[in-house]
Amino acid sequence: LRFERQNGFILWVAGPAVTFDRDARGALTALIERGYVHGLLAGNALAVHDIEGALFETALGQELYSKRHVPLGHYRHLDAINAVRDAGSIENAVQNGIVQDGIMRALITRRVPYVLAGSIRDDGPLPGVIADAYEAQDRMRSLARRATTVIAMATQLHAIATGNMIPAYRVVAG
After folding, report:
1. Which among 114, 20, 36, 108 is positioned nearest to 69, based on CA atoms?
2. Which residues, other chains included, contact 13 with Cβ-Cβ below 8 Å and sequence gap of 6+?
3. pLDDT tens per residue across span 106-143
4. Exposed (0-12), middle (13-18) or buried (19+): which is 132, by Cβ within 10 Å?
5. Residue 168 has pLDDT above 90, yes or no
6. CA 151, CA 82: separation in Å to the nearest integer?
7. What does the pLDDT look like over 73-94, one tens digit per residue?
8. Cβ distance 39 to 113 under 8 Å?
């Protein structure tokens, strides 16, 4: 990936499972901060649970490290959505110091482009999640076409969608 970091475009396709564990969340955050993520494709759930982790150190109401259930923790993802709604956007929540760590903060502070494609299953969704499937596909394609390396993890649906968008060849120097 060092070569790709300098010479290519590393596109990550990630699902919410990368946010459910403190070490996994920290690892992806560190990769973003070290320049190994040039674009990210995900859904509402990754952003919601990452922001929940930043605000409450939980994901889906479980502590990120111990995995213990927190009393009334199942409300925390809704509290995270509402905190971002109150701020107006994920970017505002980061800039206002509401979201102080994590994947979304790293993407925003490093100005890494990302697409959050919505789903009919989404609760919320967060501001900035693209609910129109055709618009989301167009935005995803704009990053997928630039990709020289794609790393997909913890998301079957977004990985399949991205795979269908990646060209089978690349034209270099004409």
Report:
1. 20
2. 40, 41, 42, 150, 151, 152, 153, 155, 158, 159, 162
3. 999 999 999 999 987 777 799 999 999 999 999 999 99
4. exposed
5. no
6. 31
7. 989 999 999 999 999 999 999 9
8. yes
pTM of the entire predicted model: 0.93
Q: How many residues does the chain have?
A: 174
> Residues 65-100, buried b or exposed e (16+ Cβ, 10 A)?
eeeeebeebeebbebbbebbeebeebbbbbeeebbe
- Two structure tokens written together for 59: 């994901």
Tokens describing residue 162: 């991205």
